[in-house]
Automatic annotation (TrEMBL), chain A:
<protein>
    <submittedName>
        <fullName>Glutaconate CoA-transferase subunit A</fullName>
        <ecNumber>2.8.3.12</ecNumber>
    </submittedName>
</protein>
<dbReference type="GO" id="GO:0018730">
    <property type="term" value="F:glutaconate CoA-transferase activity"/>
</dbReference>
<dbReference type="Pfam" id="PF01144">
    <property type="entry name" value="CoA_trans"/>
</dbReference>
<dbReference type="InterPro" id="IPR037171">
    <property type="entry name" value="NagB/RpiA_transferase-like"/>
</dbReference>
<keyword id="KW-0808">Transferase</keyword>
<dbReference type="InterPro" id="IPR004165">
    <property type="entry name" value="CoA_trans_fam_I"/>
</dbReference>
TrEMBL record, chain B:
<dbReference type="InterPro" id="IPR037171">
    <property type="entry name" value="NagB/RpiA_transferase-like"/>
</dbReference>
<comment type="similarity">
    <text>Belongs to the 3-oxoacid CoA-transferase subunit B family.</text>
</comment>
<dbReference type="GO" id="GO:0008410">
    <property type="term" value="F:CoA-transferase activity"/>
</dbReference>
<dbReference type="InterPro" id="IPR004165">
    <property type="entry name" value="CoA_trans_fam_I"/>
</dbReference>
<protein>
    <submittedName>
        <fullName>Acyl CoA:acetate/3-ketoacid CoA transferase beta subunit</fullName>
    </submittedName>
</protein>
<keyword id="KW-0808">Transferase</keyword>
<dbReference type="Pfam" id="PF01144">
    <property type="entry name" value="CoA_trans"/>
</dbReference>
């Protein structure tokens, strides 16, 4: 069995410009930020990003890496509106596919199940249909005859997610209260890169936690990256909460200054800069 | 006990949204609706389910009684056993709601949250709204982006229902022949003129608009001593 461990930079070196990239987590929660930071250090650009958006989207948008965004929202949770995303959107920096949260989930499910679409009772009557003129509807072939949106599969070239623990083979474990949709992102993608707080032996995964915490299975995973504090500054319960003070710094510092101060070096430099004070 | 404040009338008006709903999930967005949902659960709607805002169903004292991560939450939405009270950056006379952006969607003047779950909510279960500052900027002739679906866009969708809109001035419903918004009650101290002045479209006004009901002494005690002893409600609606 193969050891899939690699560094964040190695994982990102396998991505290329123009890809469709799914990013796990939700809002400002368990985002694979160490992988996003590695992405920002690379030359990869022109991305289609698929995300329940948080600072992952804000940073990639601010850095001009996004060609198209597929999302239902972008938020920092405790700061409702993501300032860098807003600024990028208001200057027309990228194309947007704005869909409902449930449509997004069913798009992932369709991709996972190798279906071209799944019917969903959402979107009809709303301007989601106006701003996405490519969306089609289907009529139930049964007696009810109801019309649904045919949500197309959100197939991904690659997925990035962050777990609490993983083994070297790619089995990923979440210990917080919500799996979000991280397993779906991995299964919907041709290649999935899983960062984690700590790589442990397979046996250790279920020593103190029940088996249903094993969210990501190794057959869906291409690379495993040990990245302690790798979701910073988003939350990674129960290992740590959101770094609210740092998030505030992120939200209130002009992007060029923030990037120069915190993202100019590698992950170690980032940690040092964070420690130096926010 | 002193007289009820405007914020407390708002809590009562929000709580009333869940009266008679039975064993469904109350999903309040905002502080006053959260107080309202918990007040309803503690008094006249004891079967309501409450969330901690994350992945747990909880009792009013915070005891977990269920697991509801986002993916199950979205399934519950579709199953219909939920009544949400959402916010609105804009809302129009037929109850179309916008939280996505202000201005042209292609190049918005102000980017807001995004449609979130408003489209799926409004087609699947009752959706009420809470607006802490009733003004012409929120109550508009036409929303810039239809996120939550209003009566004129719903095409009679089988599960579509907007029971009420609560603002700091009153309670509004759509019990008119063309399903346009009308005042159902005004909070004590509020005049119809004041509401008209703060509304960017013509309201259907019935012959008589009653005042929002008074809280009972027990409800006031629960709000003041149990649910919000720190008085945070006055931050959302000044007294």
């Amino acid at each position: 069995m193969s050891d899939k461990t690699m560094t964040a930079d190695e994982a990102v070196s396998r991505l290329s410009s123009g890809m469709t990239l799914g990013i796990g987590g939700w809002g400002s929660r368990r985002k694979p930020m160490a992988l996003v930071r590695a992405l920002l250090r690379s030359e990869v650009t022109d991305l289609t990003v698929v995300s329940y958006g948080g600072p992952d989207v804000g940073m990639l948008a601010a850095a001009g890496r996004i060609r198209k965004l597929v999302t239902a929202f972008v938020t920092l949770d405790s700061i409702p509106l993501e300032p860098h995303y807003r600024a990028a959107r208001e200057r027309g920096a990228f194309a947007l596919t704005e869909i409902d949260e449930a449509m997004f989930m069913w798009g992932l499910h369709a991709a996972v199940n190798r279906l071209p679409f799944l019917p969903v009772r959402a979107g009809l009557g709303s301007d989601v249909m106006r701003v996405n003129p490519g969306l089609r509807t289907v009529t139930s072939p049964y007696e009810d005859g109801e019309t649904f949106v045919a949500m197309p599969a959100l197939r991904l070239d690659a997925a990035l997610v962050h777990m609490n623990r993983a083994d070297r083979l790619g089995n990923g474990q979440y210990l917080g209260p919500d799996p979000y949709f991280d397993d779906l992102f991995c299964e919907a993608a041709d290649a999935a890169y899983v960062s984690c707080e700590r790589i442990v032996d397979t046996a250790e995964l279920t020593k103190a936690a029940p088996p249903q915490t094993l969210l990501v299975k190794r057959h869906m995973v291409t690379g495993v990256v040990e990245a302690p504090n790798g979701a910073h500054f988003t939350s990674c319960a129960p290992d740590y909460g959101r770094d609210e003070a740092f998030q505030k710094t992120y939200a209130t510092t002009p992007w060029p200054q923030f990037a120069a101060r915190f993202l100019a070096g590698d992950e170690q430099a980032y940690r040092s800069a964070v420690e130096e004070g926010t | 006990m002193t007289e009820a404040t405007r914020a407390e009338y708002c809590v009562i008006a929000c709580a009333e949204a869940w009266r008679g709903d039975g064993e469904v999930l109350a999903s309040p967005m905002g502080l006053i609706p959260s107080l309202g949902a918990r007040l309803a659960r503690l008094t006249f709607a004891p079967d309501l389910l409450l969330t901690d805002g994350e992945a747990l169903l909880i009792r009013p004292d915070g005891t977990p009684e269920g697991w509801l991560p986002y993916r199950q939450h979205l399934a519950l939405v579709t199953g219909g056993r939920r009544h949400v009270m959402m916010g609105a950056s804009q809302i129009d006379r037929f109850g179309n709601q916008n939280i996505s952006c202000i201005g042209d969607w292609e190049r918005p003047m102000r980017q807001l949250l995004g449609v979130r779950g408003a489209p799926v909510n409004t087609l699947n279960h009752p959706t009420s709204y809470w607006i802490p500052r009733h003004s012409r900027r929120v109550f508009v002739e036409r929303v810039d982006m239809v996120c939550g679906v209003g009566y004129d866009h719903a095409a009679g969708a089988r599960h579509h229902r907007i029971p009420r809109v609560v603002s700091d001035l009153g309670v509004f419903d759509f019990a008119t022949p063309d399903r346009s918004m009308r005042p159902a009650s005004l909070h004590p101290g509020v005049t119809l003129e004041q509401v008209r002045e703060a509304t960017g479209f013509e309201l259907a006004v019935p012959d008589e608009v009653p005042p929002t009901r008074e809280p009972t002494a027990e409800e006031l005690r629960l709000i003041r001593e149990v649910l919000d002893p720190a008085g945070t409600r006055t931050r959302e609606v000044a007294s």
